[in-house]
Design goal:
130 residues, rod-shaped
Length: 130
């Protein structure tokens, strides 16, 4: 298990568009301290390590061991929401309001025929017509 903290710190800092000075300011350390961490000449204590991971929005495994991030529950929820939104957009034609009688008849002609057949049977009208 190789510790890749220094290279990961540089990569993650840059992917978050932070300079060494900006990261140092957020951690309340000097820019030189961040530089030493990135060069591998110093390692942070556990409290500082957790703080760095939180600032860069990554897990400790990703920060220290360069492991791929595990999909979190919030990421899964976001993917499901995006899928539902896309699916509802694609099926939106089904939910459009009926604007005139002809559209209604075109969509629901089978309901009208069924109602006519039921009414006809209630009044004893000869069903041979249907």
């Amino acid at each position: 298990m190789a510790i890749q903290f220094s290279s990961q710190l540089t990569k993650l800092r840059e992917s978050n568009n932070l300079s060494q000075s900006q990261l140092a300011k957020q951690l309340n350390v000097s820019r030189q301290a961040v530089s030493k961490l990135e060069n591998g000449t110093a390692l942070p204590d556990i409290v500082r390590l957790v703080e760095i991971a939180q600032l860069l929005n990554v897990s400790l495994d990703e920060l220290v061991l360069a492991k791929e991030p595990i999909t979190s529950q919030s990421s899964i929820s976001k993917m499901i929401d995006a899928h539902l939104k896309e699916s509802s957009r694609q099926n939106s034609w089904r939910r459009q309001p009926i604007t005139n009688v002809w559209e209604f008849l075109a969509r629901y002609w089978w309901v009208i025929i069924a109602l006519v057949a039921i009414i006809a049977s209630m009044f004893g009208i000869n069903s041979n017509l249907f």
